[in-house]
Amino acid sequence: MRSSKIFGSTLIIAGTTIGAGMLALPLASAGIGFSISLMIMVSLWALMSFTALLMVEVHQEAHSNATLHTLAKQILGPKGKLLASFSMLFLFYALCAAYIAGGGAQFATRVTQWFGVQVDGALATTLFTLLVATIVTIGTSTVDKVNRVLFTLKIVAMIAVLFFLAPNVSQAYLLSMPIEQGLVVASIPVIFTSFGFHGSIPAIVRYLDGDTGSLRKAILFGSLIPLVIYIFWQIVTLGVVKQDDLLANSALSGLIAQLAITVHQSQLGTLVGVFADLALLTSFLGVSLGLFEFLGDTLKKQQENSNRVIAAVVTFTPPLGFALFYPQGFITALGYAAIALTVLAIFLPVAMVNKVRKQNPQRAYRVAGGQVSLLLTGGVGVLIVAAQILISFGVLPSLG
Questions:
Q1: Are residues 303 and 54 in contact, defined by beta-carbon separation less than 8 angstroms?
Q2: Which residue among 96, 165, 224, 346 has the highest number of C-beta atoms inside a 10 angstrom radius?
Q3: Cβ(219)–Cβ(56) under 8 Å?
Q4: What is the tens place of the pLDDT at every residue in 20-69?
Q5: Measuring CA to CA, which residue among 115, 157, 140 is closest to residue 291?
């Protein structure tokens, strides 16, 4: 029974990590080449695995049912809970904005392909959002049923895409070096966001009854699966399309079209497009459901007559507004999501562990590395936030 739960928890972490952020990896890595992107991915995987283990250490201080907000309030006080809540809200909205921006463009393409009708981008984005909003508003059970089908199809499509692209990989393309040094730093926030799974840790802790040995296995293997898949994905994208062509087609739709043109298979473009559609949909459903429930609970506390429709309006209107105003904002929104994820996955775990270690230095489970590792981890978090801020002010080159 224990091994079955560990296996299930491993898949939950892997499934949470692998999403639409995977589609952004080739776009974010276009100007830095495969070798540099590989080093960044491995480093960020190690960082995120480390901070996830810090969360396991922190969970020893509370009941296994404790949420991140509960832990933040218990250890850091009301201000800690407020910071956790704000960061979670910011992360949800930024991710939803990214998925609507990317999904709206894909939806317009699919309507044209299937029905031969040219649809205005703003209308397509709105219809796509309404479709997902309807599913989420109906209820979690509906989201679960739809997501199971979509996730299965996504895995099949991903395997097929990797299979068809692999024979076309060029070693020369993989050996391409950074075109502009600033792109190396600029790529870090987007790649970092692709390894975010920390929101699922409280549920995993509860499922495994807080057993640290089981949690360590689930976290390490669950995060390693996405890393391996990402590496293969980078090989078959960065190794198939020239660096200059990737930079010239920095939008998601441009990447899909360029892959199809390069390997001279139009059906491959459709296959990659289907995979992209499914990745966006499954990620959007999961994130928007989390935001919907989060806001729904808040509205119930403040207004007894509030209902699911009001929660849906509050959930989907702000990110839809961003996507309509900035339809090419898929990469940009993921970059801003990195700021909130840095707070949730780096700053809060480091701050909480630092405090509980001082209060109880003889804890049963303690992540290796000591104070030095906490300082280094916090320093990387500052680098990620600073990189995104510099991109926003035009100091570093913008991606996508």
A1: no
A2: 96
A3: yes
A4: 788 889 988 888 989 999 999 999 999 999 999 999 999 887 776 777 88
A5: 140
Which burial class, exposed, middle or buried, applies to 344 when counting CB atoms under 10 A from its CB (0-12, 13-18, 19+)? buried
Q: Residue 306 pLDDT more than 60?
A: no
SS3 category, 128:
helix
Q: Reduce the DSSP state of residue 315 to 3 states and report it.
A: helix
* AA identity, residue 329: G
**Rounded Cα distance, 184 and 180, in Å:** 8
Q: Which residues contact 155 (CB under 8 A, 6 or more apart)?
A: none
- pTM over 0.85, yes/no: yes
Long-range contacts of 274-277 (CB under 8 A, 24+ apart): 274/153, 274/157, 275/154, 275/157, 275/158, 275/160, 275/161, 276/20, 276/23, 276/102, 276/106, 276/252, 277/103, 277/106, 277/110
Please list the alpha-helical segments (H only) found in the chain. Answer: 2-17, 21-29, 33-59, 68-76, 78-115, 121-138, 140-165, 171-174, 181-193, 201-207, 212-238, 243-248, 252-262, 266-302, 308-325, 330-342, 348-359, 370-392
Say how many C-beta atoms besides its own lie within 10 A of residue 292's C-beta.
23
The pLDDT, as a whole number, for residue 120 is 85
Q: Say which residues have a Cβ less than 8 Å from residue 245's Cβ, sequence separation at least 6.
A: 258, 262
Q: How far is CA 360 from CA 57, 99, 354, in A?
A: 12, 42, 10
Domains in the chain: ranges and CATH: 1-393 (1.20.1740.10)
Distance of CA 97 to the CA centre of its chain: 12
DSSP 76-126: H-HHHHHHHHHHHHHHHHHHHHHHHHHHHHHHHHHHHHHH-----HHHHHH
Contact 156, 192 (CB under 8 A): no
Q: State whether residue 194 is helix, strand or coil.
A: coil
